[in-house]
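Support request from a user on the community tier.

User writes: "When I paste my structure tokens into the form, the page sometimes reloads and wipes my input. The last time it worked, I copied everything first. Here is what I submitted, just in case something in the input itself triggers the reload:"
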């Protein structure tokens, strides 16, 4: 596995459930993790150096570990079309996507992860500041 470990996954689910849902085809967890990382990269790439974060060795952040785990668990448990994904797994997946959206918009900052910088070394920001007041405008 690239960014998370089996221990990270068993923090949120029993190992037996993970085995039952993934051991039928070799590499299921690894493929699910790659897809989850791809999704996370899409959200993070505008603010963070994703090649460093998911490189070798990876730069771990516990919130990002939790996000990747929730997405992987949803993908693994959702493989069995005959079995419905539990509401806990769905809630975890929704939480993960919500956090990725907050990170993408800049409302949540991932501490200690390398950010994209400009030529002067300052973190890039797409924030715009302005003043919409017009003291000469009368109704």
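"...and here is what came back when it finally went through:"
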């Amino acid at each position: 596995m690239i960014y998370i470990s089996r221990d990270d996954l068993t923090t949120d689910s029993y190992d037996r459930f993970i085995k039952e849902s993934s051991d039928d085809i070799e590499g299921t967890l690894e493929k699910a993790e790659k897809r989850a990382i791809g999704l996370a990269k899409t959200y993070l790439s505008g603010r963070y150096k994703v090649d460093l974060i998911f490189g070798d060795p990876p730069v771990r952040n516990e919130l990002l570990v939790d996000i990747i785990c929730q997405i992987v668990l949803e993908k693994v448990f959702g493989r069995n079309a005959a079995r419905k994904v539990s509401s806990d797994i769905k809630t975890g997946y929704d939480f993960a996507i919500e956090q990725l959206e907050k990170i993408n918009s800049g409302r949540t900052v991932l501490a200690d992860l390398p950010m994209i910088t400009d030529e002067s070394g300052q973190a890039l920001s797409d924030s715009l500041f302005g003043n919409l007041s017009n003291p000469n405008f009368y109704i």
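Agent notes: The reload is a front-end session timeout and is unrelated to the input. The longest helix spans residues 87-105. The chain is about 50% helix and 0% strand. Escalated to web team.
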